[in-house]
């Protein structure tokens, strides 16, 4: 196990450059659908983790960022092209229909496009621009989020060998108690197969902020010891088998509620990662349980949060 160390500032600059490349693509293709795999490739980041990195650093998801740019473009057209219909403005700004445009507009500005006071907006905009820094209103990110860590999170870098796991796929993992029920069945299976003391894991192949919740793929798993993993069992019933390659992970030990876990992930992606000298690897993130899963119910978790990384 290695303890992480601070890297030089060019790493942070490289992250800014990568995220700004994605920003440039969105800005120059604002009328077109956002394709996350394409953005991840442009930013030279793993598709598994690009969305979280972008959101943690920019403060908006790629989709929300693009929508804001479209709405701001629409207001500009409303202000300077009064003869254009709202329908034509909607289409020219990349909205699928005038109803989609109106719904997004009202959600952000509180009123329908027809009720929006364009003159007041123009006056306020001019006032802000006249006193702002030259960088104002440019979509590029000028600096990383501040280096704050009020929860005192600590990262350890671990090199993990290749490992085989027995897993259960959980359908609709964010609805009801499907994850707990699946983990209970897995624990019972592990106890019957002399694996009760092995490492239990949870990992998601999809980001619930992108993929519809009912379509998210989440696995609960237990590691198969090395001696047995050389000849893994044959999948049977709901118990599947998967082999992960050797990987390096950035690990945070977390003991607390779901809000602490969210803050830990936000800090890991938005503060630690851009300054670490690492980039996310093409593997899902893991929750590695400390002891028996859900030993403290659903209000207190004791897990290692593991982000697969590689040298940038």
Q: What is the first-to-last residue Cα distance? A: 19 Å
Poorly predicted regions are 1-10, 132-137
Tally of helical runs: 10
Name of the CATH first level of the largest domain: Alpha Beta
Radius of gyration based on Cα positions: 23 Å
How many structural domains does the protein architecture include?
Answer: 2
Overall structural class, as computed from helix and strand content, comes to alpha+beta
Shape: elongated
Q: Please state the average pLDDT score.
A: 84
CATH superfamily of the largest domain: Regulatory factor, effector binding domain
Tally the beta strands: 10
Can you give the helix content as a percent range? 25-40%
Order of helices and strands: EHHHHHHHEEHEEHEEHEEE
CATH fold name of the largest domain: Multidrug-efflux Transporter 1 Regulator Bmrr, Chain A
Strand content: 15-25%
CATH architecture of the largest domain: Alpha-Beta Barrel
Verbal overview:
The chain is α+β, with helices and mostly antiparallel strands. It has two domains: 2-131, Arc Repressor Mutant, subunit A, CATH 1.10.10; 155-311, Alpha-Beta Barrel (Multidrug-efflux Transporter 1 Regulator Bmrr, Chain A), CATH 3.20.80. The protein is built from ten helices and ten strands. Strands 1, 2, 3, 4, 5, 6, 7, 8, 9 and 10 form a ten-stranded antiparallel β-sheet that branches. α1 runs antiparallel to α2 (36-43). The chain is elongated, with a radius of gyration of 23 Å.
């Amino acid at each position: 196990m290695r303890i992480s160390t601070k890297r030089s500032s060019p790493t942070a600059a490289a992250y800014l450059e990568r995220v700004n490349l994605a920003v440039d693509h969105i800005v120059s293709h604002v009328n077109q659908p956002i394709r996350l795999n394409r953005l991840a490739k442009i930013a030279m980041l793993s598709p598994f983790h690009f969305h979280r990195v972008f959101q943690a650093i920019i403060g908006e998801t790629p989709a929300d960022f693009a929508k804001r740019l479209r709405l701001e473009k629409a207001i500009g057209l409303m202000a300077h092209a009064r003869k254009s219909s709202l329908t034509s403005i909607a289409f020219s700004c990349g909205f699928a229909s005038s109803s989609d445009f109106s719904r997004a507009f009202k959600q952000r500005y509180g009123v329908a496009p027809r009720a929006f006071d364009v003159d007041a907006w123009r006056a306020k905009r001019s006032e802000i621009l006249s006193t702002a820094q030259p960088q104002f209103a440019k979509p590029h990110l000028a600096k990383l989020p501040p280096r704050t860590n009020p929860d005192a999170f600590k990262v350890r870098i671990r090199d993990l060998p290749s490992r085989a796991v027995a897993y259960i796929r959980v359908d609709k993992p964010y609805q009801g108690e499907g994850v707990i029920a699946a983990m209970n069945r897995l624990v019972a299976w592990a106890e019957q197969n002399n694996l009760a003391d092995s490492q239990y894991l949870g990992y998601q192949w999809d980001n619930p902020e992108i993929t519809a919740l009912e379509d998210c793929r989440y696995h609960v798993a237990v590691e198969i010891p090395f001696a047995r993993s050389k000849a893994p069992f044959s999948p049977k019933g709901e118990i599947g088998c998967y082999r992960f390659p050797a990987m390096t992970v950035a690990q945070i030990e977390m003991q607390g509620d779901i809000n602490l876990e969210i803050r830990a992930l936000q800090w890991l992606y938005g503060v630690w990662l851009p300054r670490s000298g690492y980039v996310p690897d093409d593997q899902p993130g893991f929750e590695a349980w400390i002891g028996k899963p859900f030993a403290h119910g659903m209000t207190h978790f004791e897990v290692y949060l593991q982000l697969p990384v590689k040298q940038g």
